[in-house]
């Protein structure tokens, strides 16, 4: 399961940590900026799961995580400003990207995120 859904599981783990942090930190009430962070984290998990890997775009799932994590940073800085709580939210976004990037995945079409196999060439031996 990890080999097939590793990237999606890493994104879900990042989303769960973001939800837990938003709900349990500070006043233990989800404010509007925390709600936006949670929504972006959920969109990251869903996007990473839904985007298929293809031989041409083996990096597609990681690209989704990067794009939405950049949005997470922008939303955090613009909506809430930077204080110690926001730095932790940004750290969770960065860890999600690293987790998605490092985790294995295989799409339904059989494409994995590992390097494409090298074509084997056959050399002829002199007789």
Helix content: 55-70%
The chain-level mean pLDDT equals 84
Gross geometry: elongated
Structural class by helix and strand composition: mainly alpha
Q: Strand content of the residues, in percent? A: under 5%
Number of helices: 4
How many strands? Answer: 0
The largest sheet, given as strand count, sense and whether it forms a barrel, is: none
Strand and helix order: HHHH
**Which stretches are low in confidence, meaning pLDDT under 50 for 5 or more residues running?**
117-121
What is the radius of gyration? 19 Å
User: What gap, in angstroms, lies between the N and C termini?
Assistant: 49 Å
Topology:
Layout: H1 2-24, H2 32-50, H3 60-80, H4 84-102
General description of the model:
The chain has 127 residues and is mainly α. The protein has four helices and no strands. 28% of the residues are buried.
Short précis:
This protein has about 130 residues and is mainly alpha-helical. The protein has 4 helices and no strands. Keywords: Membrane, Transmembrane, Transmembrane helix.
